[in-house]
Amino acid sequence: MLTQLINGRILTPQGWITDGSVLISNGKILEVTNSDLAVIGANVIDVKGMNIIPGFVGMHIHGGGGHDYTECSFDAFNAATKAHLLHGATTVFPTLTSTSFDNIIKVAGLCEEMMKTNKVIQGLHIEGPYLNPKMAGSQWGEFLTEPNKDEYTQIIESTSCIRRWDISPEISGGYDFGRYTSSNGILTAITHTEAEYEDIKKAFAAGFTHAAHFYNAMPGFHKRREYKYEGTVESVYLTDGMSVEVIADGIHLPATILKLVYKLKGVEQTCLVTDAVKYAAFDGEIEDSRYIIENDVCKLADHSSLAGSLATMDKLVKTMVNKAGIPLEDAVRMASETPARVIGVENTKGTLQKGKDADIVILDKDVNVRCVFSYGKIVEGTNTLIH
Questions:
Q1: Does residue 386 surpass a pLDDT of 70?
Q2: Is 228 in the same domain as 270?
Q3: How many CB atoms lie within 10 A of CB 357?
Q4: CA-CA 20 to 30 A from 382: which of 93, 154, 190, 200?
């Protein structure tokens, strides 16, 4: 079946195209053209002047729809992934919170199985358990430990699905961990850290090339007694080549900081992430007494820390545009093209180009998702545009 999308603004790597069309066949983009003349035999879809953009790449998502990926079940993986797919995340890397060695092995095995049937899932992301306990935040303390080489090598050698792993680089064994994971093609990121400039320089040299939920769970400029010191934030800004991600829900970071990251790190080095917990895109009741939902964000019940966002990828783009004043095309790129490149799936994801997967989102002028195509097929529940 040949499908043709017409009458929309198409975001390409070269910029916007108007009066063009996108041709889809067998789950791939056949062509992005400057002509909107109907192709004979094609199923023509008029998008009514809206924006045709690449599907979002969710590279840091703990859960959604009432389920957490750490639950390690087919139902949890499918439900959480579908919840975010409905909001335009056509590529998802399920994220594990700090958990046991045995559970990491189990989830990695399940992820491999899921990837055979659910093509939205493109690999596994592990956060922790090798974290600085002083900066652990909502990560559960009973699982925190220093890197154990026998343990992490066994995990990595037992599976091919791990695409990203985040730890605190400054803890004992952290730099060795970074050298090993990065040499195995795994995106290695700093997270939950109090690293300062010399630590970040060592981490970058050891293979840590990304900073998770930038500004959150890491210090900025600070003072100890009478002297002042750069924090992790300033150190990452000073490290050329280290990419960052921001939870652009408008709560974890204010619009002014989102503007600053955009200005200093730029589109090519900034990814938008949800860091979503199980209650994202969920209408049910919260039954876990450890959490509360307040002001559209999830917090620990004792108010000691934010526990994760309730955002979906479309909300991030909308926040960047409407609150931070970022051009739509740049906000979309930070939610699609940049994360696809940073995590290593840019050959098939992230941009609307010939030969790539037909993962496409239709956004209206108010930056609302009106339709989602996954591998060229309309995702059930997102066809408000199509009649």
A1: no
A2: yes
A3: 23
A4: 93
In a domain? residue 33? yes
Asked if 163 and 344 count as a contact pair (C-beta separation under 8 A), the reply is yes
- Cα–Cα distance between 290 and 137 in angstroms, integer? 13
Q: Supply the pLDDT for residue 387.
A: 46
CATH (domain of 66): 3.20.20.140
Q: Identify whether residues 28 and 95 lie together within a single domain.
A: no
Instruction: State residue 140's pLDDT score.
Output: 65
Q: Sign of torsion, CA 337 296 125 148? A: positive
Q: What gap in Å lies between CA 304 and CA 296, rounded to an integer?
A: 16
- What pLDDT score was predicted for residue 138? 62
Q: Which domain holds residue 16?
A: 2-53+353-378
Say what the pTM is. 0.96
Q: How many domains does the chain have?
A: 2
Residues 292 and 182 in one domain: yes
pLDDT, tens digit, 9 for 90 and up, residues 363-377: 999 999 999 999 999
Residue with token string 């960052």: 244
Query: What is the band of 284 on the pLDDT scale with cuts at 50, 70, 90?
Result: confident
What average pLDDT does this structure show over 24-43? 95
Check whether residue 184 and residue 122 sit in a common domain: yes
Question: For residue 139, what pLDDT is reported?
Answer: 61
Residue 189 CA to residue 203 CA, distance in Å, equals 9
Given a contact cutoff of 8 angstroms between Cβ atoms, the answer to whether 35 and 3 are in contact is no
